[in-house]
Design goal:
332 residues, Rossmann fold, UDP-galactose 4-epimerase, domain 1
Length: 332
């Protein structure tokens, strides 16, 4: 298969390229040539810029399929689609679970209501506009490629190359052992998908010629938080213990979801219990959780110790919160 990636040198795209090359596929990358530019010297590198609409390097070439890893505003997706309309057989767009309306119920599938932007002309990507813009990106791809479009909606992507530090925070913190502050309660659901599994699923869809829209957020049966953090402890051989801290109290202490990644208020917990049955039926598989945990820690250990982390509680703040929580409990 001759494959074009829009992006491909970061996180999920990087996994796709590695898997595609291992599978004997021919790969071309379209990037600005700025991020990890020295990766994959054996593939064709085509340079342009989606922000300015520079797709000149793609013209006059053909591929079997394209994977769009970095479409965030509909204009960019439309522009790429117009250039590639007759140059590829299939167009796979990596979207997000954030396209769904807030408060989706547990078990919701690909037919759940989608977000709508008040201002559909905006190109400012924020926490408020991200999901709605991705909806418009999906529509742009589908308007050009129709039944040749494939939409994949992941949620929390984890593992090697993860730049977000969200899952990495928990793996690293639990590996250090001791008393760990955990939000909420042990039965709250959580879903995540290893970037390698997400990459393999995309390639399978393209190889099999499978079309449609797919949630790809995690295993068919979501983890319970207690099993999730306990599974990390077991995989790492850690002596960590877990202190469960009430949501409302954490909010009073102005703790947020970037300090305790994967934590969402109870009313939004359905976002971590999405149906992935359609994707599983199409061939989505999952590696052992322990492998993902160990891969994540190994990757984290390659990062400079002084590199700022994008998510997680500062150790001193965690210790302070644990002390305050115990004082509160003892006073009741």
């Amino acid at each position: 298969m001759r494959l074009l990636l829009l992006g491909g040198t970061r996180f999920v795209g990087r996994h796709v390229v590695e898997l595609a090359l291992a599978g004997g596929h021919e790969v071309s990358l379209f990037t600005r040539g700025k991020t990890n530019a020295d990766l994959f010297p054996q593939v064709e590198h085509l340079h342009g810029d989606r922000e300015t609409g520079d797709y000149e390097a793609l013209k006059g070439k053909t591929w079997d399929a394209v994977i769009d890893t970095c479409g965030y505003v509909p204009r960019a997706v439309r522009q790429a689609g117009e250039v590639l309309r007759d140059a590829v057989d299939r167009y796979l767009f990596i979207s997000t679970i954030s396209v769904y309306d807030d408060g989706m119920p547990a078990g919701a599938d690909e037919t759940a209501p989608l977000k709508k932007l008040t201002d559909e002309a905006t190109e400012e990507v924020t926490g408020e506009t991200y999901g709605g813009l991705k909806v418009l990106c999906e529509l742009a791809a589908q308007s050009i490629f129709a039944e040749r479009a494939i939409i994949v909606r992941p949620g929390m992507i984890v593992g090697q190359y993860d730049p977000t530090d969200r899952f990495t925070y928990w793996v690293k913190r639990i590996s250090q052992g001791g008393e760990v502050l955990v939000p909420g309660h042990a039965q709250r659901p959580v879903q995540m998908i290893d970037g390698k599994d997400l990459g393999a699923f995309q390639l399978k869809l393209l190889q099999d010629g499978t079309l449609g829209v797919y949630n790809a957020t995690g295993a068919t049966q979501p983890f319970a938080w207690g099993d999730w953090v306990g599974g990390m402890r077991d995989a790492l051989g850690s002596d960590a213990t877990f202190t469960w801290v009430d949501d409302a109290w954490l909010e009073e202490q102005q703790v947020n979801g970037m300090q305790l990644p994967f934590w969402v208020p109870e009313q939004y917990a359905g976002v971590f219990a999405v149906s992935v049955q359609r994707a599983v039926d199409a061939g989505l598989t999952f590696r052992p959780f322990a492998d993902t945990v160990r891969d994540t820690l190994a990757f984290e250990q390659t990062l400079p110790a002084d590199q700022p982390r994008r998510a997680g509680l500062d150790p001193a703040r965690e210790a302070e919160l644990l002390k305050l929580w115990k004082e509160k409990q003892s006073s009741q």
